[in-house]
Amino acid sequence: MANVLKPYHKDYICSLIAEYKAPSEIEKLFKTKYKMTIWPQQIARIKKKDLDLINKTRALYLQDLMEIPIAQKRIRLERADKQYEEASKIENVKSRIDIRLRCLARSQEEMEGKTKLGDTFLNFQQNNIFSEMTDEQLIKEQKKILSRIKNIKLPKVVEVESDA
């Protein structure tokens, strides 16, 4: 016997569609929440039948996006500026320059109004130089690091006699 969807089930599905969730995501979320299986055909029927509800819910969803800090232009610019400053600490010169240039370009786009709500923002990420190395280079780098570790001078511990 097929599961009969109640009005609150349909409302939940409409809200997920309004949030741009894929049918496969909707199926998983629905099954997790209600312990019931929903089929792609059911989702398609609900999407077609309840388009007004979906559009109203979507309008509220998009309106609420402006309450998320990263959706605010000032916040995005402040974060790009912070990333720009943090990038100056990266040892790898190529990575440092690349990330700082991307921060500047993103800020310029933001100021010129070229970015739209929903655009992805620059992810601050230091490149992993080890993934680009050959085995020989990795072994050489490992030896250098181990040598540096062995040469670390630890502070001398001075024991203090107690008056007891």
Topology summary:
Layout: H1 7-18, H2 23-34, H3 40-49, H4 51-65, H5 73-87, H6 93-111, H7 135-150
Helix pairs in contact: 1-2, 1-4, 5-6
Keywords:
single chain; 164 residues; mainly alpha; 0% strand
Distance between the termini: 84 Å
Stretches with pLDDT under 50, minimum 5 residues: 117-127
Radius of gyration: 27 Å
Supply the number of helical segments: 7
Helix-residue proportion: 55-70%
Q: Shape, please? A: elongated
**In percent, how much strand structure appears in the residues?**
under 5%
Largest pleated sheet: none
Structural class: mainly alpha
Question: How do the SSEs run, as a string of H and E?
Answer: HHHHHHH
Q: How many beta-strand segments?
A: 0
The average pLDDT value, as a whole number, equals 80
Short description:
This protein has 164 residues and is mainly alpha-helical.
In words, what does this structure look like?
- This protein is an all-alpha fold and 164 residues long.
- Among the domains are: 7-65; 69-118.
- Helices cover 60% and strands 0% of the residues.
- It contains seven helices and no strands.
- The longest helix has 19 residues, at 93-111.
